[in-house]
Amino acid sequence: MANVNPDLRKERENGTFSVEKxxxxxxxxxxxxxxxxxxxxxxxxEFSKGEDYNxxxxxxxxxxxxxxxxxxxxxxxxxxxxxxDEVYWLWQLAFPHEASPIQLHGDMFLPTLTRQGTExxxxxxxxxxxxxxxxxxxxxxEMGHGTFIRGLETTAxxxxxxxxxxxxxxxxxxxxxxxxxxxxxxxxxxxxxxxYTNGKNYGMHPFMVQLRSHETHEPLPGITIGDIxxxxxxxxxxxxxxxxxxxxxxxxxxxxxYSQVLKDGTYVKSTKLKKSSYGVxxxxxxxxxxxxxxxxxxxxxTIAIRYSAVRRQSEQTKSQLEPQILDYQTQQYKLFPILxxxxxxxxxxxxxxxxxxxxxxxxxxxxxxxxxxxxALSSGLKALTSSMASWCIERCRLACGGHGYSAASGFPxxxxxxxxxxxxxxxNTVMLLQCARYLIKTYQGASNGKKLSGSVSYLSDKVNSRSxxxxxxxxxxxxxxxxxRAFRFQACGxxxxxxWNRNSVVLTKAAEAHCYYYMVSxxxxxxxxxxxxxxxxxxxxxxQLFALFAIHENAGDFVQDGFISNDQMELVKWKELSLLSxxxxxxxxxxxxxxxxxxxxxSILGRFDGNVYANLFEWAKSSPLNKPEVQExxxxxxxxLLNPNKSKL
Length: 649
Ligand SMILES: CCCCCCC/C=C/C(=O)SCCNC(=O)CCNC(=O)[C@H](O)C(C)(C)COP(=O)(O)OP(=O)(O)OC[C@H]1O[C@@H](n2cnc3c(N)ncnc32)[C@H](O)[C@@H]1OP(=O)(O)O
Ligand SMILES: Cc1cc2nc3c(=O)[nH]c(=O)nc-3n(C[C@H](O)[C@H](O)[C@H](O)COP(=O)(O)OP(=O)(O)OC[C@H]3O[C@@H](n4cnc5c(N)ncnc54)[C@H](O)[C@@H]3O)c2cc1C
Known about the structure:
Blueprint: H1 6-13, H2 19-27, H3 30-47, H4 58-79, H5 84-94, H6 103-116, H7 119-130, E1 136-139, E2 155-159, E3 164-168, E4 176-177, E5 188-197, E6 200-210, E7 223-227, E8 240-244, E9 247-250, E10 259-261, E11 267-269, H8 279-310, H9 329-364, H10 371-398, H11 401-404, H12 411-419, H13 428-447, H14 475-491, H15 504-529, H16 533-553, H17 555-559, H18 566-584, H19 587-592, H20 598-601, H21 612-621, H22 632-637, H23 639-642
Parallel strand pairs: 1-5, 2-5
Antiparallel strand pairs: 2-3, 3-9, 4-8, 5-6, 7-8, 10-11
Helix pairs in contact: 2-3, 3-4, 3-5, 4-5, 6-7, 6-8, 8-9, 8-10, 8-12, 9-10, 9-15, 9-16, 9-18, 10-12, 10-13, 10-15, 13-15, 14-15, 14-16, 15-16, 16-18
Flavin-adenine dinucleotide is lined by residues 104, 138-141, 145-147, 178-180, 234, 239, 420, 423-424, 426-427, 429-430, 433.
């Protein structure tokens, strides 16, 4: 590429491995890379130009997102993009770190319809939804409850006289509040409501509800609906509220795959699938982990590492050129563990998607044995990786000094999009406790001799009492360290019934320890499977750094019972720092391997060509506040103070 910043060019000439081979590994094969690049070229033709998001109002961002939605849907149709990955590649360039107003339609509305609806209901609604004649959202959370699903208040009371359900919001706190796209965009919603029939409450069930007229898009009578107002981020999507006032829907619109209400009001439960109505949340949590890597950790460290290669600051040696800030050990300590985390979360996200589809397939065949483990693992990993991503993005911003605080850095947009994942789809603390609940029960089973499999098999294994870590720092010895820590935490767990709350801080750490062990195990297995020696070596270094950074940051967990000795901990600290200089040579190439387009990253600091300053100046000059040269408001409000005799405009 012509006109690349010389420092960045030198970085790219000095690497030790093939970036293309690593990109192929991250994609899952060369054929995938080729296909992704093809789809991205199509997307860039359509979406690379347009008004700068940073200079738009919230309302302009929403309107622009509606327009982009229509164009993205048309592109997918025009180019025959139907596979989920291909649609995702186009949409992430159409909506870089933005949610489309119809995000929930694909992410939750359709999956709930297809997994909770009967064949008849799917046949009725799916064709309309696939043609976007129905645009739906998933309305579960209320103003008063989001976490505690059994505390939700919206009611659906069956009327056998008319064979209808009466949807009602009995209190202010029962208003559905937060669902994405509910405010202005969706004309349908799957509403989670308490089912009452024959005077009995059967708990939370899903209902297909039309909200707005097909002809006018006006709310239907009995429905008060709107946008909940500006948020921390998510400007492009109208998270909304809806209030039902004795709103009637046909009996047939209760999604009845797993339970039914007959015409006479008899309730029938036709499945042993526990929490069947909670299923779509497991799906989104499982998909989120990969999203957090690709939309959060990876772009953030790409920005910070590329910028750190072109930013020269201060003086290391008298009368020498100011050094690249990437040469400071402190800068490497800030950024390289984050780079390692980006790879760790990406590999874990790929694995989590695989496991989800395996278990989902089994459930469709009626085998639900693995659902509790999937629920626990997806809950714990969603919590750990979304917290990790939030922390890492902020650390990347801080590593870029003043320009990191500019919207031109790209960090504000990435951060507010990603940090929401700590809350939605299950608030992180609650998700860790769900994971811990499963682990404690499983550990108790293992203690009674039950043989375990999958991600919890270690709880019935024999674990080493002393670490085998040497100066070689074999990946197996690192995995073993995290296995030991996770085991120890489960062993000190409590009986969920009588001391749950008093132990819940420890239980959240037990869940995190379990998930860390899982992530290091996945990372190690990926490294072992890499064929190219040069790629294997550099990805192996990242795996070592990911593990050693976590061991050093949580040293107490590993030395407390003598598992890692003081001498071994000194070795850990030494190796962690020496890995920083090993990785320094390849740092820029390791972020190049994510193969992001500048249009996706949306950062002047993270441009592929590294030409930051000239583009930063042009960007600043394009700010609307710089036109006209003298703002009318200045003349109106301040000039009289400075020139009392000068007449106002
Ligand atoms: C890619 C970008 C996407 C951006 C879009 C973002 C859109 C966001 C959408 C949303 O946020 S939708 C709303 C999400 N809301 C939640 O996640 C609510 C979180 N709360 C819960 O899930 C539940 O309240 C709870 C915390 C799990 C507790 O539920 P409940 O009180 O009913 O259960 P308990 O009595 O405590 O028993 C737990 C029992 O149930 C099992 N279980 C719980 N959840 C599931 C599940 N999803 N699937 C399967 N099984 C589940 C759990 O394992 C326990 O089993 P046992 O221990 O009793 O055997
Ligand atoms: C950007 C965004 C998009 C969203 N989209 C949707 C959507 O499309 N559809 C939808 O239905 N919902 C949506 N939500 C709502 C989201 O699912 C809820 O906000 C989330 O489940 C958290 O519930 P809450 O708000 O009630 O938080 P709370 O549970 O009130 O959390 C507040 C605090 O209480 C603590 N707490 C709560 N329960 C416990 C417990 N048992 N033990 C220990 N601590 C506890 C939490 O840890 C937290 O610190 C969205 C939210 C956001 C931010």
